[in-house]
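G., the chain you wanted modeled:
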Amino acid sequence: MLALLAPSWADELDLEARLAAVTNEQLVTLSRTNAWTQLGHYHDRFLGQRKSQVQDPRFFLALQGQTQPQAELEATWQALQASLTSALDEEADLRCRFPARAHWLATALDIPLPARPCSAFDAWYEEIDPGRLTLVFPSAYLNNAASMFGHTLLRIDAANTQQRPDLVAFAVNYAAQVDSQDGGMAYAIKGMLGRYPGYFSLMPYYEKVNEYNQLESRDMWELPLDISAAGVEQVMRHLWELNEMRFTYWFFDQNCSYQLLAVLSVAQENLDLTRGFQIKALPVDTLRALDQAGLLIEEAGFRPSFATRLHNMAQQMTADEVELARVLAFDQPHPRDFLLPEGVNQAAIYELAAEWISFRFQHQGLAREQAAPQMHRLLVARAQVRGRSGLTTPATPEIAPHQGHGTARWGVGLGWQADQAYLSLVARPAYHTRYDAVEGYLANAEINLFELELRFFEDEQRLEPWRLNLVEVGNYLPSSPIFSMAAWRVQTGLERTDPEARTQDSWRGFAIGGYGRAWGEGQDWMTYGFVTGRTEIGPQAGHAPEGEDWALGAGINLGFVWAPVRPVRLGLDAHWQQFVAGHTGAFWSTEATVQWNFAQQQALRLQGEWDEREESRWQVGLTWLHYF
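Predicted structure as tokens:
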């Protein structure tokens, strides 16, 4: 009996000796390590002060733990000692309450950490059965302010993928807790001002696939992460610690993508994935951060949206075949009474009609009582057609989102206006214009935010603000035999007009909204036409530089973009506007652009502008652009 008790007694003496050997200097050193910084979500503020981004007091063991990493580590050390030397219940034991902290601190101090049952955590972990982590990127969705730049979530792939394939795996999502009464504009404003709490949540992956891939018709990229089994375990322990913990949600920086990077940073001692995202954390930029850290595996899954699948099917069929499928999906004749002509791909027609019915049911309000019977009849008709339809699934794009150009851009240029030469400096934090290389981006969309241009005119001998493009968003989705799509465009900003006039006399603010149609797939060409409304304020508002300081009108905006060869994109954008209130009158303006995207992060842009209000004005400039 004494022989049996001796090892336990010796282990207990060894544990006591190790606990007693820990010094205050060790704790101070550990409180300054990157690993503790990531576990506590601490970030630099002013004059070397640090503060955790977690806003929930339950996350901290020390009274001043949110702002004092050392105090929080010392409190964690005390809790670990109590867990190892006393019989505590689960709610009080550090190993159950903060398992990631307990594991890291015991490892750092070379103290054995005996396992103990933690019923809630153990059941949660067993149900998820984590094996590998995959970052998921649903593409941009311009009809929702919250999703204009895309989104990221984390999928936890099960260790046993045969019993739990990816669709029934679990997904980790970070999102704002939004007031149900807030619309798109209210959400955007509150999100930018940090007025929403943010929380992590866990849900079945198929729910997010249904939300993004099916309901919102967003393509999804699935990017496996190169994280070790030990790293996956530590990430899971930390996710348990963050359950129901409140953060502050910020639309541009501390958003869904940023906080997932913060969680993944606990996987390795040296990871600090959120470094460099103090101002903005766009989803595609966070993918690049993971790639630069060596955490993205080359293989990437692509899950095309419902709309992409329908478009792809229609593109492989003739116009007559698509029309026959449309009749079956909308007029819903019985297939036995609607005989298909000889020579058509009957299997493809029935397959497209069935998918079209499903899309109408999920997206366009078709009642189940109308959808289900015709769906059944179509599937029966398809089963009676021998052979394959020959329709193939959408191909995975050659360039993944993070492999395109950088979202920020700056440039220098030389130009002429009113017979005066000028140097220009341009910069924008985000995101993509219709003349930038489209690889990795939505081909029929542009988002251009906070673009500033400064000009130095030789005669003036001073550097002055010339143009501030606050917001420019264009959705140029084309109509097709499958969908009738509306295109739209909004833009607002400030601009100077005359280098020879005094600064206070030569500016105007403007806001433009356009609604219309677009044609073309965007990669090689597209054209568009809008009916527009326009508001201007300032000394140069409206028709001429004298009179009212505001103007309100309507007009037409026409344009096209063409890529004769892939690196070159050129286009024309023309406006005609009739101001009917304020400083009334009409004006024309035209902008011609040629951009050579000669490298992934480099481009040359030649742009000429002409407008005619009371008098004609023109300018032309050549700018070198660098993306990062």
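The mean pLDDT is 92.

Shout if anything looks off.
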